[in-house]
Amino acid sequence: MRSRRKWLAAVAVLVLAHAALWAWWYTRRPAYRARRLVAELRGLSQPAGSSSGWLGKLKLTRRPREASAICRDFAPLGRAAVGPLVELLNDHREPSRHLAAWSLGYLGPSAEKAVPDLVAALDDDDSVVRLGAVHALGAVGPPSAQAVPELVRILEEEDLSLRISAAMALGGIGPRAEKATPALAVALVTGDATLRGSAALGLGGIGPGAAAAKARLSQALYDDNLLVRVHAAWAMTKVAPPAPEAVPVLVRSLREPTSEIRAMAAAALGSMGPAARKAIPALREALKDDDENVARAAAEALSRIRQAARPPAQ
Fold first, then answer.
1. 210-215: which pairs have CB atoms within 8 A and are 24 or more residues apart?
2. Where are the domains of the chain?
3. Cα radius of gyration rounded to whole Å, the chain
4. pLDDT per position as a tens digit, 5-29
5. Is residue 74 helix, strand or coil?
6. What gap in Å lies between CA 111 and CA 57, rounded to an integer?
7. This prediction's pTM
8. What CATH number has the domain spanning 64-139?
9. Torsion sign (Cα): 208, 210, 216, 220
10. Which of 17, 94, 109, 247 has its CA 20 to 30 A from that of 272?
11. Helices 82-89 and 97-107 meet at what angle, rounded to 10?
12. What is the CATH class of 244-309?
């Protein structure tokens, strides 16, 4: 009986030790620490020390999936997270500075006060920090207009990832990035297809202010790369509406095997209004698409085209 009790006691100790070890490991996971910080900033819990100091001590990962999840955790916090994240971004001793930049991007326009710090980060020695800053400036949108000259300069660098992100960010800034039109027009005819497509999206984001690039966008409608053609067609509807020359490209794209491209084409046709009347048969066919996103986009496009074509009520 005594030996049995000893055996049960040993098992209990092992179980408790295992539970303690698991708890120790779990509470040191980056995602757990990020959630803990989110709770702190929301006022749901009060760990010792300031939130900014606690954030600076986080040992976060550079693994893309975990990093992305951690950054998204800050999105609901809005302006409350800006100060601590900027503090981390500017602390050059911290290896997790790049996550501060990406997290500011997930805050969107709420991170407007971080724009000067993000612009400064465009010259950082760490390319990952620079990439995060570019992404964040585009996500903040029009308040990032002061970054336009720096983003144009990045478009001329050798780092392809930075150039692609800069083109997208300029589109995110919108009409206030009009001065970037010449640089984006040049990027539209570069050797890399992803950069060409991103340049088209950037021009589309700027809108009518990028009308000087209309001729380049028209040429891009016949690009060898499908995605470039679709992005250029979408951009034409924003830069030089109603852009009837984009309709054939978008109609052909409704038959492409990639559902995302089909949905994008349908949405672009819908934004054209009556100018896309010739696409109505193809859009009706797209209502039968196996992908519900494509079918929904086609239905919305048909509704918008018909509504725009309807004469105003007397």
1. 210/178, 210/181, 210/184, 210/239, 211/239, 211/240, 212/181, 212/182, 212/185, 213/181, 213/182, 213/184, 213/185, 213/188, 213/239, 214/239, 214/240
2. 64-139, 141-240, 244-309
3. 25
4. 666 666 666 666 666 665 555 555 5
5. coil
6. 22
7. 0.77
8. 1.25.10.10
9. negative
10. 109
11. 150
12. mainly alpha
